[in-house]
Amino acid sequence: MPVLSCFYLVTRANIGNIDTMKDTKLETKIGYLKLLPSRIHLLCSMLEAYEGLCSVTTIDPGKGLVQLKFAAGCEGDVLAILSAEHELLGIREIKIRSLREENERKKSTPSFG
Questions:
Q1: Based on the number of CB atoms within 10 Å of its own CB, is 89 exposed (0-12), middle (13-18) or buried (19 or more)?
Q2: Taking phi first (over 0 means left), then psi (-120 to 50 degrees means alpha), and beta for anything else, what does residue 70 get?
Q3: What's the pLDDT tens digit per position in 39-69?
Q4: Range ranked top by mean pLDDT from 57-61, 104-108, 109-113
Q5: What helix, strand, coil percent values describe the chain, rounded to 5?
């Protein structure tokens, strides 16, 4: 049941009082994973089995680089799944930022072309 905690919080706020949504400090988090390229499909299947938990985007299939997007309230659930399955998936690195931090980083990086 802990995986549904993020969904429950948002739904409860919608039912109770729409103004409470403004008080919740949920923001989108972005996670980057490096894992065994042959296990990307398994990661997608695992995380997408929990509907609405996060979205998975493959950035570089050859290097096993994957991007996850999820609400900050779901971070604990996503990390619990990843830590439980890290050996099976061959996870080598995890970096997590907020969407705001990611956008600020992109603005400060000079673009070429």
A1: buried
A2: beta
A3: 999 999 999 899 889 999 999 999 999 999 9
A4: 57-61
A5: 50, 25, 25
Torsional class of 90: left (φ above 0), alpha (ψ -120 to 50), beta (otherwise): left
Distance CA(32)–CA(93), nearest Å, equals 8
Give the Cα separation of 50 and 43 in Å (integer).
12
Strand order in the sheet with 65-71: 55-60, 65-71, 28-34, 93-98
Q: What is the pTM of this model?
A: 0.68
First to last CA, the chain: 48
The CATH code of the domain at 2-99 is 3.30.70.920
Domain ranges of the chain: 2-99
User: For residues 35 and 67, what is the distance between their CA atoms, to the nearest angstrom?
Assistant: 11
